[in-house]
């Protein structure tokens, strides 16, 4: 390392940004989060449209099947729904803590 | 934990979707990337915009980062490509470079003598040479690291650095025999 290199490095260092810059980091993360949100939204939109299309295609056979099933299984489903509601009320959503931590 | 292994751990976590790990990567590498882009393109606000876009691209391309590769070199490579793309598409860059070459702009007016001379000399260097000098002389990249980051042959990087260094020393009025 020569004195000339030292002087070059010192002159370059005058233009260095700060080692920590909360404003810059926050701006980057805001853009990253916005991108992630839009990607999630697009993905869920595609799933919703695909699901709706599939349901439309299968609706006739499903309807016949559901009508016949509902006659016999309605009491069992009612009990199951009450149990699930109770469990959710008592325990909360399983992944809510993980979502809050990220 | 060494900086390289900390980077590896953070990259692995970010690849798994951890925004917190990615935020730490941003914090750790923003200075090096922004300094490189400031030197490469000469305009601070453009450099910071490019740095933000680089991190955004890095977030979506994290899966392509090879295990054990230098995160800093990888980011500088993405940033350099963004800089080249911006140069091609922004017509106003020519006017900005001309202004930069003349030494205008608020950042230069109050600057110490060496800094002004250095910025002028950097602005006069060809784009590739400027990037090589910014990485090897200012950011302490090895020649091979810079070659990988800029996607240039090793010999080209070495000759760019040698020629660029000579021109910068001449601009600063420093003799190479001083050391």
Describe the model.
The complex is a heterodimer of chains A (102) and B (179). Chain A is mostly helical and 102 residues long. Chain A has one domain (3-101). Helices cover 85% and strands 0% of the residues of chain A. Chain A has three helices and no strands. Chain A has helices at residues 3-13, 22-91, 96-101. The radius of gyration of chain A is 29 Å and the shape is elongated. In chain B, helix 2 packs antiparallel against helix 3 and helix 2 (19-41) crosses helix 4. The model of chain B is unreliable at 103-111 (pLDDT under 50). Classes of the chains: A mainly alpha (102), B mainly alpha (179).
Q: What percent of the residues of chain B sit in helical stretches (DSSP H or I)?
A: over 70%
At CATH level 3, the topology of chain B is Butyryl-CoA Dehydrogenase, subunit A, domain 3
Determine the structural class of chain A based on helices, strands and strand pairing. mainly alpha
Quickly give the CATH architecture of chain B. Answer: Up-down Bundle
Annotation, overall tally of beta strands of chain A: 0
Q: If helices are DSSP runs of H or I spanning 4 or more residues, what is the number of helices of chain A?
A: 3
Low-confidence stretches of chain B: 103-111
Question: What's the domain count of chain A?
Answer: 1
The pLDDT mean of chain A sits at 87
- N-to-C order of helices and strands of chain B: HHHHHHHHHH
Helix content of chain A: over 70%
Strand count, sense and closure of the main sheet of chain B?
none
Q: CATH homologous superfamily of chain B?
A: PhyR, sigma-like (SL) domain
> Biggest chain pair contact, residues each?
A-B, 32 and 39 residues
Query: What assembly state would you assign to the polypeptide chains in this entry?
Result: heterodimer
What would you report as the Rg of chain B, rounded to the nearest angstrom?
Answer: 17 Å
Structural domains of chain B: how many: 1
């Amino acid at each position: 390392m020569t004195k000339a290199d030292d002087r070059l490095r010192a002159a370059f260092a005058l233009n260095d940004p700060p080692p920590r810059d909360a404003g810059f980091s926050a701006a980057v993360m805001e853009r990253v989060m916005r991108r992630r949100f839009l990607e999630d939204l697009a993905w869920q939109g595609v799933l919703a449209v695909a699901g709706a299309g599939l349901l439309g295609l299968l609706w006739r056979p499903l309807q016949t099947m559901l009508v016949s099933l509902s006659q016999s299984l309605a009491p069992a489903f009612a009990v199951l729904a009450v149990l699930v509601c109770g469990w959710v009320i008592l325990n909360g959503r399983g992944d809510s803590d993980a979502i809050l931590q990220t | 934990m060494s900086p390289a292994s900390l980077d590896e751990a953070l990259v692995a976590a970010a690849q798994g979707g951890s925004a917190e790990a990615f935020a730490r990567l941003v914090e750790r590498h923003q200075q090096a990337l922004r300094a490189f882009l400031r030197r490469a393109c000469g305009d601070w606000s453009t450099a910071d915009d490019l740095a933000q876009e680089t991190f955004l691209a890095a977030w979506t391309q994290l899966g392509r980062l090879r295990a054990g590769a230098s995160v800093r070199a990888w980011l500088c490579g993405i940033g350099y490509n963004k800089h080249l793309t911006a140069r091609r598409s922004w017509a106003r860059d020519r006017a900005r470079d001309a202004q930069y070459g003349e030494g205008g702009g608020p950042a230069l007016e109050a600057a110490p003598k060496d800094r002004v001379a250095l910025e002028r000399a950097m602005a006069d260097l060809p784009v590739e040479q400027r990037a090589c000098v910014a990485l090897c002389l200012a950011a302490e990249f090895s020649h091979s690291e810079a070659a990988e980051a800029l996607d240039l042959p090793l010999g080209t990087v070495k000759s760019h650095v040698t020629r660029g260094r000579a021109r910068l020393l001449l601009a600063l009025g420093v003799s190479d025999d001083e050391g």
